[in-house]
Every structure is written in structure tokens, then in C-alpha cells.
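Long-time lurker, first post.

We've been arguing in lab meeting about whether NAP would sit comfortably in this protein at all. Half the group thinks yes, half thinks no, and nobody has a model to point at. So I'm putting the question to the forum: if I give you the sequence and the SMILES, can you give me back a predicted structure of the complex? Inputs are below. Any interpretation is welcome too.
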Amino acid sequence: MPSYLSIFLYILEYLYERFLRLLTGDLIIDEETDPSTVVGKVALVTGANSGLGKEVAIALAARGYKVILACRNLTLGKSVVQEIQQRTRALSSNLILKELDLANLSSVRTFASQVSTQYPKLTLLVNNAGVYFDSDERQVTKDGFEVHMGVNHLGHFLLTNLLLDNLKAAAPSRIVTVTSTNQLIADLQLDDLMLERVENFGFQNTIPYNNSKLANSLFTKELGKRLVGSGVTTYSVCPGLVATDVFRNFTPFRKFYTNLNILLVGLTAKQGAETILYCALDKNLSKETGQIYRFGKHFKSAMKKMDGQVGKSLWDISLQLVGLNKK
Ligand SMILES: NC(=O)c1ccc[n+]([C@@H]2O[C@H](COP(=O)([O-])OP(=O)(O)OC[C@H]3O[C@@H](n4cnc5c(N)ncnc54)[C@H](OP(=O)(O)O)[C@@H]3O)[C@@H](O)[C@H]2O)c1
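Top reply:
Settle the argument with this. Predicted structure of the protein with NAP, as C-alpha cells:
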């Protein structure tokens, strides 16, 4: 379990970096400015119907990308597609709404199979969707996985692996996975990934979420290694503390003081999306792979904690859990 000292240091470092970020102002992305280079390029964003995913989808559509919005709620998704169309004047053929439930591997397989057939070249995959509960009760996905590990890590693990050929076909291409600063206070035990044996979920019951977010960065690093030479590069991003709906499942008291924190040191969804877009688009990052970013730069303390051996073991376990070892 993370100690109170490590939790305190993690908060202190966040506040310091957030303060620096305030001083430096908006993040400038050094990207291709000729719109013709984007024509026909396909980007996929999971959880594109709200918060950070929606902001990323808006920014990509405004640049001329064909954006696949992978959402579990198609009714909400439809209204977001209309909103993006109005705000960006994107062609309707450039906004593709598709159903994806990351809490159900069969849905992930159906979705990936449709996308890989219909869009043989995929330039950008943004693994953004996520859930965050602060309950002391263990919840599971349709496949019986602990819900955070299942949705935030395993769903994206399977999706990414099933779309790798499409990403390679579009190289240079990128995979950006949204993680969290909370990975610094994870307690990932590979022999109990589904938290069946732990007695409590730690400070504010955050261990299940924190572990899934550490898994996002370990996955990104291991995938980056495996893709060296393929033209596909990987990035994991903590967006900062952002005013979105991700805290919707919190208890009323926790929601109250999280909102207070957001008011004091948080970011808007548009600001939070900046580092995701930086990793997706900045030309200077084309030679980097597997690293973690926050506030538009390397998230060094998280990178220092990355353990290649754990990443490799997590990869092997994840393959088995999603059934890819049977291929
Ligand atoms: N906000 C923050 O302060 C913060 C900080 C660090 C990291 N993050 C990460 O940022 C990412 C985006 O979250 P957000 O802050 O933008 O929150 P959000 O507005 O709640 O967005 C989360 C998205 O994930 C989707 N989603 C949840 N479960 C899903 C499932 N089973 N299948 C498919 N989609 C699913 C949600 O769809 P529905 O609308 O259908 O629920 C929603 O579109 C998450 O990975 C989160 O962990 C956020």
C-alpha cells in the first residue's frame, strides 16, 4: 500500500508542476500546418462522447481528420457528433460514430473487426475512455474482470492489439493512452490483478483505479518496445486534474471536495486535452516511444518508477486474460 508520505509527495509535486504550467500558458504544439497532409487520415478516440475524449475529437475534426468516435452510449454520441459538426464544420462523412463497450470483450472484438475492415489504415488511436469508482465494493465487467482493470486497461489492451496491423499500415502512426498521476500511488500485484484477495482498497478506495492507470503506462512502454522499427510509436498521458464527468460515481462528499480541488488547481477539459493532442501531433515526438507525459513534458517521477520486467509480465498476463494467446 502507498504510504501517506508518498501520497503527500505526489500531491506536492502535482501542485508544483501545475503552478509551472500556469506560468507557461497554453501549450504550443509543433505540428504539420499544411491541411492537405491530414486529408484521408483516420483517427480513433475511445470515450469520445464526453470530457477529454470529446475535446480531442473536436480538435482532430477541426484539423480535417476522419474521426471514429467509439462510444458505449450511441444516443449521447449522436448529439456529440452534431455538436462537433456545428463547431468545426467538419464533413459529416468525417465523423463516424461506432458502438464500443470496453467492459465487454465481445463488444471490443466486434468493434475492432468492423474498424479494421472498413479502415485499413489508422493513423492515430487515442485510448481515452475510463471509469473511476471510489467504492469499497469490488465491481466486475461482463467478463468478470475488476471493473477498472477491465475497462481502463484490458479493454484497451485488446482493442489496440486487434488494430495493430491497421496502425502499421498507416505508419508513421501513434497510439496515445490516457493514464493518471494516480499511478504514482498504485499497488499493483501481478498475482492479484483482479483484487480478489486485498482486504481494502487503500486511501479513498483508489487502489483499483490507480492500478489500472499504472497498467496503462506499463502497457504503453512495453508496446513501444515491441513496435520499434514498425513506424508506430506509443505515448501515455496524464491530463492533469480536469473538470469532467469522470468523478460522477464518487460519494457526494468526495465529489464536493474533488470539485473544490478542481476549482483551485484543476484544468478545463480543453486544457486537459492539450497534452493528449501534443503526444498525438507534435513533430518533435515522432522519435520517442513508450514514455509518459504530463503538462506538455515528460512526467519524470512516473517514468522513474516504470519497471520493464513488470511491464513484460503484465503483457503476458493481459494476453491470456483477453484470450489473445490462443491466436
Ligand atoms: N478528469 C480527470 O481529472 C482525469 C485525470 C486523470 C486521468 N483521467 C482519464 O481521462 C480519461 C477520460 O476521462 P474524462 O475525465 O474525460 O471523463 P469522462 O467525461 O467521464 O469520460 C470518460 C469516457 O469514457 C467512457 N467510458 C466509460 N466506460 C466505458 C466503457 N465500458 N466502454 C466505452 N466507453 C466507456 C465514458 O462513456 P459514458 O459517457 O457512456 O460513460 C466517457 O465517454 C479517463 O481514462 C480518465 O481515467 C481523467
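For your lab meeting: The CA atoms of residues 62 and 89 lie 8 Å apart. The first helix runs from residue 4 to 24. Whichever side wins, do check it experimentally.
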